[in-house]
Amino acid sequence: MTGIRVEEAGDVTHPLIVLVHGAMDRSAGMLRLSRRLDDNFRVTRYDRRGYGRSTPHAGPYDMAAQVADLVEVIGTRQAVIVGHSYGGNIALATAMSYPQLVAGVAIFETPLSWEPWWPGTTAGAAARAIEGSAADAAERFMRRLVGDAAWEALPTKTRETRRAEGAAMVGELRDLQANEPWRADRIRCPLVLGYGGKGAVHHTEAMRFLHAKFPESQLFELDNARHDAPNSHSQRFAEIYVDALAAAAGEPWASARRLPVNPAEP
Fold it and tell me: Hey, which residues does 46 pair with through a beta bridge?
């Protein structure tokens, strides 16, 4: 795959689950979740174009390109997909266009930026609208997420790396605002939706909005979690969302969903 770095874990004979990260993230942000799953599933993570080890990348960064990357990651197999934040839109767009590859989708706090009611005060909207370089937009996004002190405490090389990801972030977020990436009436696979109990209001409203659009979907709140729940609450995320997704997708995922429980982990 040209320019896209992919990692897989777990027995190759186990059913496939693909983890798709969000904007200004990378596959490492899904590593803790992957480790909760790789005894039961073949788990695939990848750095999306323009992020992590898939940087630099010339683009484009629109949804068609994102879907093409995910289809190439899946290959001739069939998968269930867990999409975090922007990654949820990639999962849904892929399920719409390639239903034969996608047995089910779980999404967590996925932005609906093209909807007229989506607020213009989010970190993504602020970064999208910034005048100046894409690198400046990436820095503004990260400062909103982690705070000024945490950003300035990062090593210079790390800050430079994150700023270099600005082209991917601006490209994909502007495309998401301008173009509806998928249509609800064309998605047929089982769907699991989630949001954090301590997350932003607009993310909660978005998942409830989608639950109304997909009346057969399952909607869960993860208590005490924020937007980074797949990393911060990886065990509970696996037990709630991945378990529900595997059960809804049917075989062979349903039989593989018995997840190890470690009460000491969130």
Answer: 6
Give the pLDDT confidence of 131-189 residue by residue, as tens digits. Answer: 568 999 999 999 988 899 999 999 999 999 999 999 999 999 999 999 999 999 999 99
Q: What are phi and psi of 43, to 5 degrees?
A: -110, 125
Q: Where are the alpha helices (DSSP H) in 61-133?
A: 63-74, 86-97, 123-129
The verdict on residue 193 lying in a domain is yes
pTM over 0.90: yes
Number of domains the chain contains: 1
Q: Which two tokens stand for residue 67?
A: 């879907």
- E strand or H helix at 218, and its extent? strand 218-222
State phi, psi for 21 to the nearest 5 degrees: -85, 170
Look up the CATH number of the domain holding residue 85.
Answer: 3.40.50.1820
157 occurs within a structural domain: no
Annotate 139-198 with DSSP letters as a single string: HHHHHHHH-HHHHHHS-HHHHHHHHHTHHHHHHHHHHHHHS----GGG--S-EEEEEETT
Name 136's Cβ contacts closer than 8 Å, sequence gap at least 6: 130, 163, 166
Give me the residue label for tokens 């590859």: 101
